Amino acid sequence: MPNESTKLDYPSTDSNTKNQDGYFQCGFCKRHYNRADHLIRHVRSHTREKPYVCDVCDKGFARPDLLKRHAAGHANDRDRKRKRSSSIAKQSRVSQACKACASSKLKCDESKPCRRCRERHLACDWQDIQQQASPDPHQDTLPEMAATENRHLDSMPSPSDVLSPILTPLEDFSSVSALMTSGVNLQDSVLSPVETMSSQQMPRDTGVSPNDHESAVFSIDGTFFPNFIPDSLIPSLSRYSDSDFPGVVPDYAQYGALDNFHFDLTLTDGDFSLIDFYNSHSIPPDVPDSRADTLFGTESGIGLGAEAYHRSSLSAYKPAREDHAFDDHENLSVPQMMNTPETSVFTNEPTLCDRLSPTTRDLILSLILEVSREATLSRIVRSFPGADLLDALVQQYFEHQTHDISAFIHTPTFHTNTEDPGILAGLAAAGAVRSSNPTIRKLGYALNEGVRMHLPTKYERDNTFIRDLRTSQTYALTIDIGIWSGNRRKTEIAESFSQPLITMLRRALRFRRSIYPVVIPLAEDVGNTLESKWRSWVEQESFKRLVYYVFLHDAQTAMALNVNPIISYADMELPLPASRLLWDAKSAVEWKDIIHAKAPPLERLPSLADLLRDMSQLTMLQDVIDTQLAASVLVHGLSALVNEYHRLKFISSGGSKHWHALVTSSRQQELDQALQHFRMVCSELKTGCRPETILIGEVVSMLLYMSLEELQLFAGREDKQEARRVYHSALEWIASSDSRQAISHAGQIIRAARSMSSGALTGFLAIGVYYASLAFWSYSVVSRANTERLPGQSESQNSGAGTTVFLDCDRGVEVSKFVTLNCGFPALHDSGRAVYLVNPAAIMRLAEATLHSDPPEKTPALVQMLSQLMRDLGNCVDRGR
Fold first, then answer.
1. Distance CA 295, CA 370 (A)
2. Is residue 165 part of a domain?
3. How many domains, the chain?
4. Please, are residues 220 and 170 in contact by the beta-carbon 8 Å criterion?
5. Is the per-residue pLDDT at 470 higher than 80?
6. Facing residues of 625 across strands?
């Protein structure tokens, strides 16, 4: 190719011409192709490039299949005796000649300094050859370049020089556009202020990977390859890393080049096998990069939140000798002022008709004393809560359960003074930890410790309790209180104690359909017969709801702790719970009347597995099943599928020989479509969808597009070494459309959280808001670091120019354009003003305010810890600048 540069002659945007000629055009001979890989193969006929080199004899080939056929001839040559001599190997064209050899038009070699310069004691300079060979886009035209191409073929630079991925900002983009264009008149496009800058104004270093910023069908990074053509397919044209790329490639999607997606990119089975082979071999293993600290300082966000994480309860629990179950026993004593009916913590109308008697209170005290140390017995006896306070706590739990989607204890058949003291102590603990009074909350955790220690003794004393409903319900309450306590020790114990309950339920066949026979009252059923059928139905419905409650708890724990769930969605073959109206019936007669007032009950209610196969059953059967609970179960089942996707993605990366990278990509699209279908189904429910279910659905959607493990490591959850290890993965995520998908769902999490009542954001819902803030923080920190390295740009420019895209509103056209094309500046609403994501501290303050508005002393420990962590993460960015 001549050194004289060419001026681009942009093609017409006529749609008929594009459809007939193909979208990819050769810059040499003007031929069009429908597939980018066909264009790549054709361009090599002009450049004479043979990038596929045999590692035995150094012979080059233009196509990988020819190399494979040639390599088969070396299969039996184990000792490589037929290795070509170095003199023969030097006959192939080198990727870049030095200045001395190029000016003398003599052969150079790959080693630098080259042999000729070493022998003649010449300065072997090859760094600026690229710039000399770069064309100037303001002189000749493409026809002139094509006409002179054959005449200068012998003197043209090496193919890697012609198609080098190391481009200067605008000049070299012109040459790339000449080689491949989508038939769009770029001159007529509306450009953003950044895009209309001159080549002198364009920044030389963004620090952001130029590869596929907009998730487009093809990347404009100097290599004109579609995303599915891997880097190793053409080694001499491989995409450079962020730290190696000195120029800026214009945002191709902003020019309108992606307005038409009718590309014919159909691949055959052979294409998929070849592409996946190179895809799996092109990803280097994670190796700590020593250049990270020098290329990017602390402003890049590596491990900025390490100190914040170490102060929070999300860090690993380090047991100490003084840590034990009896630490909380001092909290079993409450002040006398709280033991009177006048100061009862419960002021609403009681949900249960029975009031807890002093005799029952003494049975609860006896249970606690059995697991207490002798030295504390007298104090516990003197100050243990009275019957009125314990009754108020039990009543408070049942009042909460009336609004809870996953209620699993049947209120009409629960009689306080005839129940086991273990379940009463567990219910009192569950009611106490929901109190706004810190002293009452401490009492709840102390009661829960006593119940947890009592259960193993109860099981060992009589093994029949393994199948007992009330004991299993007590166990479920205990692990739920512990896992969301905000205390590292209690969380770890609750996590480890989850397995036995699940095992007992599974071994009792409670996950199977066969153990739940259909119970239907007949018209002539009255008296004891009807009462017996009702209580039989209540017991098996209670077991069903308990199993689904444990399933929800297990799925939420898996997402909160980033571990695999214990229960598989495929194991959940039991039928879904019946409608909430039947569950809330206060008597056998009312239960019978509700059943006969509706259509005859189905002989076979669907299971979770059935819903995953066909989500439309949720709307078709919404008068028969508990739709709100079923919707919650369904989205938690989808969370298990997302968890599986990330595990498969993990083993299919880094040069996997057995797992196809294209499969994981298509799996992500399937899951995204499934979650979209779930949202559509929920919108068709008669009663709508509860805000907590919407929030969890958005959390699952967000986790589909972000690696929670890597983002937390990047933020500093473990140490800076681990943060450095995942640094480039975080950069790749920020530069891809996955990050924009994730933060768009994070915005919807904030929106759903705002719609919930005060104090409702506890447990996993609070974790979900924290995950949303982590997505914002990661996106903001890296984007801000990249922006600050751009000369002439500032934070105010980023937040003040262009379209503001609010992520916490309805997902409209602006949000879709931002996700797909990276158009606009993402922001959240805050009291009528916009808070842009380029401001990490402000974003974290907004997320913290969304999480809770109560004073710290009235806020649960988990919420306090998450709020402090978000505050620290926001503040550490300013300190690290």
1. 62
2. yes
3. 4
4. no
5. yes
6. 578
